[in-house]
Amino acid sequence: MSSLDTMIPLAREAMRRAYAPYSKFPVGACLRTGGGRFYAAANVENAAYPQGQCAEASAIGMMVAGGDRRIVEVVVMGGTPGDGMLCTPCGGCRQRLREFCAPDVQIHVCGPEGLRRTVTLEELLPLSFGPENLSF
User: Fold this and answer.
1) What residues are annotated to the active site?
2) What is the mean pLDDT of the chain?
3) Cα dihedral angle (91, 58, 61, 59), rounded to 10 degrees?
4) CB atoms < 10 A from the CB of 93, how many?
5) What pLDDT sits at residue 135?
6) Which contiguous run of DSSP H or E holds residue 106?
7) For residue range 12-68, what is the model confidence (pLDDT) as tens digits?
8) How far apart are CA 55 and CA 61, in angstroms?
9) Residue 54, Cβ neighbours under 10 Å: how many?
10) pLDDT higher for 19 or 135?
């Protein structure tokens, strides 16, 4: 069984539970860590729009609280079945992922029906600034 066989259903369930009353655009994300643990979360909107939280940011918070620090694979799910649109991480979440991911980590972009495309973090965030840029 591949990791996607676990991650896609977890992201789908998180997406189903998203709190998106304003945008009506639920998103689910699932992270796999270097230790093989999975963290799935949803976007959480707020009436004060800037205070909402993306699914990826929610999953990263859960991962850190769970004691993990290295992401080796990501699933992001959004959109409606068959719409063909890619729900990729926003710019802020690309940088958040970069804090815990190597540039070659695969980001699986999914719709509710499943995988739509796989890219690397480097493709989403070329010439990125990461923790190693601050090495002394």
Assistant:
1) 56
2) 96
3) -90
4) 24
5) 77
6) strand 101-111
7) 999 999 999 999 999 999 999 999 999 999 999 999 988 999 999 999 999 999 999
8) 10
9) 21
10) 19
